[in-house]
Amino acid sequence: MEPPPLVLLVGLALLGAAGLTRSLSITSAESAFEKAQGERVTLPCTFELSEEDVGTLDIEWVLIPADIQKKEETIILYSGDRIYNHYHPALAGRLQFTSSDPKSGDGSVDILNLKSADTGTYQCKVKKAPGVESLKIQLNVLVKPASTKCSIEGSQEIGKDIVLKCASQEGTPLLYYDWRRVVTGTQGLPATSVLNKNTGELLLKNASKDYSGTYSCVASNRVGTDECSVELNVTPPINTAGVIAGAILGTLLGLALLAFLVICCCKKHREKKYEKEVHHEIREDVLPPKSRSSTARSYIGSNRSSLGSMSPSNMEGYSKTPYSQVPSEDFERTSGQNQTIASSKGGVPSAYSSLTSHTRLVT
């Protein structure tokens, strides 16, 4: 049974109206990006408008925080043919619209010089009344491995177990490490080696001379790699007995030298002390010299006192006294000195002559 012609006409009219009417829609498909720190990323947000969308076009990008308790934050806005991008200080100078004319249907944004702190969920909102549409994009900023260092742990002797270590100072986990030996014609590791790709340790068991060579380590994650190398030189065991004997001999020689220096210092100290004691004793034995002039005056004065007490009974003794004999201790001089003194001051001999004359008169 065929449907009534009126019903067919109404249905066709509705279908045609639905096909001619379009609403605002976002055509971008990518919703997740993973980039390395320092790189550049473009977050897409292309859209199409309908004839019914007659309002002002607004394109707003917001950052949705990981903490649901916090509010989303506007980072850049296009409205009324003007761009506002001063909302988020952390992105200042690094965030811009990809197109110079976003109203043409491209509301994508570029983030320059990415940082790990830029990781998060971004949302593009396009509004042109009555149409409204949005798109969420997840951005992960990873740090490449960097400052990777290689080292050797253990004695590099034949028969010993040696551990080669590799570690990156920077880099977003998960980091993976891979070792290889750089030898002409081959890059294989020794048969006894054990590699831990998570810790970066390479264990070389029962090392032999053939294990010597250059070993290279490559650290990697999802956004980059870094490399370091180390030189391994496996040698015969060291003669520990000889080393110990040499150390003991060196210690004994050092002690002997120290003892010799101590003995020399003590001997030198005793000699200096003895010299000081002898010099001091000599200075104590020497009496200070007497004043010649004071000695002469005391001698004459004592004789004058004796003359004052003279009497006839004791004059005989004085007359026989040899006044001309002056003690050599007090009046010992050269002939030239005696003459000078006698002529300048009257001298002691003149006094003696006067005294003799006086004695004769009394007698």
From TrEMBL:
Recorded topology in the membrane: Single-pass type I membrane protein
Biological process annotations from GO: actin cytoskeleton organization; epithelial structure maintenance; heterophilic cell-cell adhesion via plasma membrane cell adhesion molecules; homotypic cell-cell adhesion; neutrophil chemotaxis; transepithelial transport
Compositionally biased intervals (Polar residues): 291-327, 334-343, 351-363
GO CC terms, sorted: adherens junction; apicolateral plasma membrane; basolateral plasma membrane; bicellular tight junction; cytoplasm; intercalated disc; membrane raft; nucleoplasm
Domain of life, per lineage: Eukaryota
Pfam families in alphabetical order: Ig_3, V-set
Subcellular location per the Swiss-Prot or TrEMBL entry: Basolateral cell membrane; Cell junction, Adherens junction; Cell junction, Tight junction
Gene3D superfamilies: Immunoglobulins (2.60.40.10)
Chain spans, region Disordered: 285-363
InterPro entries: EJ_Adhesion_Regulator (IPR052307), Ig-like_dom (IPR007110), Ig-like_dom_sf (IPR036179), Ig-like_fold (IPR013783), Ig_sub (IPR003599), Ig_sub2 (IPR003598), Ig_V-set (IPR013106)
Keyword flag Plastid: no
Signal peptide range in chain numbering: 1-23
GO molecular function, one term: integrin binding
Chief location category: membrane
Annotated keywords: Cell adhesion, Cell junction, Cell membrane, Disulfide bond, Glycoprotein, Immunoglobulin domain, Membrane, Receptor, Repeat, Signal, Tight junction, Transmembrane, Transmembrane helix
Domain Ig-like stretches: 4-140, 145-235
Residue spans crossing the bilayer: 243-266
PANTHER family: COXSACKIEVIRUS AND ADENOVIRUS RECEPTOR, COXSACKIEVIRUS AND ADENOVIRUS RECEPTOR-RELATED
Name used for this protein in its record: Thiosulfate sulfurtransferase like domain containing 1
UniProt organism field: Gallus gallus (Chicken)
